[in-house]
Amino acid sequence: MRPVLLAVDGDPSELRAVERELRDRYNSGYSVHCTRSADEAVAFLERLSEGGEEVALVLVAQSLPATTGGGLLERVRQLHPHAKRGLLISLGAWAEASTGEAIVDAMALGRIDHYVPRPAASPDEVFHQAVSSFLLEWTTDRRTVPHTVHIVGEQWTGRAYELREVFERCAVPHAFCLAETDQGRELVAKAGPGARLPLMVLPDGRALSDPSNAELAEAAGAPVDLEEHSFDIVIVGSGPAGLSAAVTAASEGLRTLVVDEGGIGGQARSSSRIRNYLGFPKGVSGGRVAEQAYEQASIFGASFLFMHRAVALDRLGDLLELELSDGRRITARAVILATGARYRRLGIPSLEALNGAGVFYGGPVSEAHALSGKDAYVLGGGNSAGQAALHLARHARRVTLVVRGQSLDAGMSHYLVREIEATNNVKVYTGTTVTDGGGAGRLQRLLLRHSSTGEEENVAADALFVMIGARPHTGWLPSEIAKDDRGLLFTGQEIPHASDWRLERPPLPLETSMPSVLAAGEVRHGSVKRVASAVGEGSIATQLVRSLLPVLTASVAR
Ligand SMILES: Cc1cc2nc3c(=O)[nH]c(=O)nc-3n(C[C@H](O)[C@H](O)[C@H](O)COP(=O)(O)OP(=O)(O)OC[C@H]3O[C@@H](n4cnc5c(N)ncnc54)[C@H](O)[C@@H]3O)c2cc1C
């Protein structure tokens, strides 16, 4: 059955134009339906929901009376939580301040995903660009893009979870199914006689039985023959700061290697919609930014080494030497540390034992679709926890945000607080902590403690996403690199003691106390914890390295 595209517009000639554009372009892959009546649209959506049919996109004209249009959009969210919802606006209406405000409000309250200009000509490529971006997002969310890797496992946990996590971190679209399902049986049969679980089926049809991390690294990114290369710059970390450094360095002709213990995107990877990043008025997922940046850096010639952790850094004459977790060593003329931060652990043994089996650290991008009709909990009071709760609310039956502080406003942006308040299936517990939990092989219950009353409450829970603040991973760096008491790296003028700096020239603004080793993004003391800031610092760090390279060999140690 083809997924449905539905358009609702009370103006007959405008509706005809929308219908013509949708049918001309999408008829072969989608089933197009158009109506002038919001009531008819709701009845149609109810029938589709009862029949288990998928709705990819619903376009609703802004000119419909606010109550009718708003009510319809709300019903779409309830009946078809995965469907993208666009507000059809007239050309030129955007110039009116009231239209802008209405759109921003509708987005802030989670009523629409974004606006689509009504078609003004045929074909109207601006209209089609908006529609196809919605459809790309929908197919990516539903894991039906052609480059999806399929993973078949006996259970959700264990190695099958590790495989999903690796692909999630490498920004590779992946879908998981249990071996006992029809799809699981079909994939195993196609893989042939010797297939073993967990099984990974690549988009080109190749199947790998219980693959090793090395095989995964190869499947997820271009492998690098380190012995064959020498590098001008090695970047540790491929979050926004590292990716930006890589794009700038490779585009300037520097021989560039990026090493990451996971895949691309860092923390940004777990952000389902970044709304405050320059140039993306409709918002963009962290995964998408990361994928595009990876492609951009690769095209300029940067090399990537995934699933390799940097474990030591040393000086070797004029060069720097980085040791990797597999024992290999890489030399470079300069190093940029872009290792960001990782979520703090809960430290509750019963819940640590269920990591990957209902308890997850970080955002719910890859697990959300498996939580349809289930109860999810998010622990944390920052923007990332707020975003996670809203993203989950589109899939889960009920989402509970558990916040230790007494109010949401203390740690969360105002627009997120408003959206959470306006989302029916998100409940907020302030002044509350998670103290215990458990389940048979998978999370089934949590114990909450409400601090104001001292009461404890046992709740049924299918998933817990822990987002309680992040810590830098800088313990592996040499003592020569000065850190603050949280382990963040001092750079430039902030290097506290003159004695930490060995050269005659002063340190560059993003340079650590180890000459030619720079830091960018969240790992840096005093950084702003935003994607845009990390991207800016990555680019600046590379420019600084560039200014440094000609004089590196001439530097005289005191
Ligand atoms: C759920 C969520 C939502 C967010 N939403 C927004 C938002 O809407 N807008 C916004 O501006 N910001 C948002 N942020 C914050 C933003 O993602 C971060 O500020 C940004 O990712 C920091 O980038 P970074 O490159 O400095 O570090 P990170 O993103 O933390 O990346 C660091 C990378 O280094 C790697 N690494 C670490 N140690 C090693 C090692 N020893 N060897 C090899 N690799 C290593 C890690 O695997 C990781 O890939 C969000 C964060 C989260 C978690």
Describe the overall structure.
The chain has 558 residues and is α/β, with parallel strands linked by helices. It has 4 domains: 4-141, Rossmann fold (3-Layer(aba) Sandwich), CATH 3.40.50; 149-219, 3-Layer(aba) Sandwich (Glutaredoxin), CATH 3.40.30; 234-262 and 269-342 and 472-557, FAD/NAD(P)-binding domain, CATH 3.50.50.60; 349-468, FAD/NAD(P)-binding domain. The chain has 14 helices and 26 strands. Strands 10, 11, 12, 13, 14, 15 and 26 form a 7-stranded mixed beta sheet that branches. The model is unreliable at 552-558 (pLDDT under 50). The chain binds flavin-adenine dinucleotide. Residues 236-242, 259-262, 266-268, 270-271, 274, 276, 309-310, 338-341, 362-363, 383-384, 387-388, 473, 476, 521-522, 529-532, 534 line the site of flavin-adenine dinucleotide.
Key features of this structure:
single chain; 558 residues; alpha/beta; Rossmann fold; Glutaredoxin; FAD/NAD(P)-binding domain; 4 domains; 7-stranded mixed beta sheet; 5-stranded parallel beta sheet; 14 helices; 26 strands; 31% helix; binds flavin-adenine dinucleotide
Number of helices: 14
Ligands present: flavin-adenine dinucleotide
Distance between the termini: 73 Å
Residue share in helices? 25-40%
The CATH topology of the largest domain corresponds to: FAD/NAD(P)-binding domain
Mean pLDDT value: 87
**C-alpha Rg, in Å?**
25 Å
- Tally of distinct domains: 4
Query: Structural class given helices, strands, pairing?
Result: alpha/beta
Let me know the largest β-sheet. 7 strands, mixed
List the helices and strands and how they pair.
Layout: E1 4-8, H1 12-26, E2 31-35, H2 38-50, E3 55-61, H3 66-79, E4 84-89, H4 97-108, E5 114-117, H5 125-141, E6 149-153, H6 159-169, E7 174-178, H7 182-191, E8 199-201, E9 207-209, H8 213-220, E10 231-236, H9 240-251, E11 256-259, H10 286-299, E12 303-305, E13 310-316, E14 319-324, E15 329-337, E16 341-343, H11 349-352, E17 359-361, E18 375-379, H12 383-393, E19 398-402, H13 414-421, E20 426-429, E21 432-438, E22 445-450, E23 456-460, E24 463-466, E25 470-472, E26 517-519, H14 531-552
Parallel strand pairs: 1-2, 1-3, 3-4, 4-5, 6-7, 10-11, 10-15, 11-12, 15-26, 17-24, 18-19, 18-24, 19-20
Antiparallel strand pairs: 6-8, 8-9, 13-14, 14-15, 16-25, 21-22, 22-23
Helix pairs in contact: 2-3, 9-10, 9-14, 12-13
